[in-house]
Amino acid sequence: MSDTPQAGPAGPDTQTLTPETAPSAPPSRGRRRKKEGKPASLWTDAWHDLRRRPMFIFSLVLIAILLIMSFWPSLFTSINPLDARTCDLASARQGPSAGHLFGRDNLGCDVYARTIFGASNSILIGVSTTIITAVVGGLLGLIAGTRGGVTDTVSSRITEVFFAIPQILGALLITATFRDKGLGIWIVVIALSVLAWPMTFRIMRAAVITARSQDFVIAARALGASQSRIMFGHLLPNAIAPVIVVSTINLGGFIAAEAALSFLGVGVQSPDISWGLMIADARSRFLEAPLPLVFPAVFLSITVLAFIMMGDAVRDALDPKLR
After folding, report:
1. CATH number at residue 305
2. The pTM is what?
3. Of 277, 278, 272, whose CA–CA distance to 262 is shortest?
4. 281 is a domain residue
5. Phi and psi at residue 196, in whole multiples of 5°?
6. Which residue ranges run through the membrane (predicted)?
7. What would the pLDDT profile of 66-76 be if each residue is shown by its tens digit?
């Protein structure tokens, strides 16, 4: 007799396993996380959340349109920049028509073309100021928060001096003093940046002070990591989120500040075009012809609102407590 056990007849509850009916192996942890859409980091988690926020999508579309308008104005108007600066006094304050959708201003200039070309300078000033304040304030805040001691004390006292200066008043003084030095729109960028970087400094410093007491930073120091590696490899990635949020919100504020300076006569100067300068030129005849003021004001408000809405959405996505 053979010692090999013989297979018995299949009972009613017995199922023969085939490649088609055999249960598949459970998905790996990585595949399961990808399938379920679970993020692997704070940034992917924030992006996963932002894509489901209507406010973020709406503001993103508005900002994209405005950026395209700034870099490629020819997509929105067939009038070239030189013709946009050419005015016909005989046609001053004419209403909207097929050839001039927003009508003409007090000098007979095409309001629609000037509104399109005005987006370039206004957004350029806002973006440039935001980048400068984020880099300067963020870097100084990173150094002060990491080193502490005398470095932190001295830099904090310096920022308090800047906080004591009203931003618009200080920018008004700087632009009025240096506007004849041939700097053009960049004097507005410099004036706003000089007075706005301390806010970014304080936010970065506070975030770094919070992060430097975490276990991963203490472990990096214990393993002999250099100061620069701790700053840029561990502290900066974990402290940059609030700076990004504040910078996004501040961008809209810088655009509004440029409009205020141009309205007061010390910002963008002719023959350059900006929304603030258009509002200033149209205010004297507002009751007779309101449209030359209304249209750039509406575009300015929409732009500021779009960046503020995006900043609020990014803040909510990066802060788990607000979800």
Report:
1. 1.10.3720.10
2. 0.77
3. 277
4. yes
5. -105, -20
6. 55-75, 123-146, 158-178, 184-204, 235-257, 293-314
7. 999 888 888 88
Which pLDDT tens digit goes with each residue over 221-271? 888 878 888 888 888 888 888 898 899 888 988 999 988 888 888 888 877
297-301, long-range: CB within 8 Å, 24+ apart, which pairs? 299/115, 299/118, 299/119, 299/275, 300/122, 300/255, 300/256, 300/259, 300/275, 300/276
Q: Which domain holds residue 210?
A: 42-81+103-322
In a domain, 23, yes or no: no
Q: Which positions ≥6 away from 20 have C-beta within 8 Å?
A: none
- Identify which of 244, 263, 253, 255 has the alpha carbon closest to the alpha carbon of residue 314: 244
Does a structural domain hold residue 12?
Answer: no
Flag whether 279 is in a domain.
yes
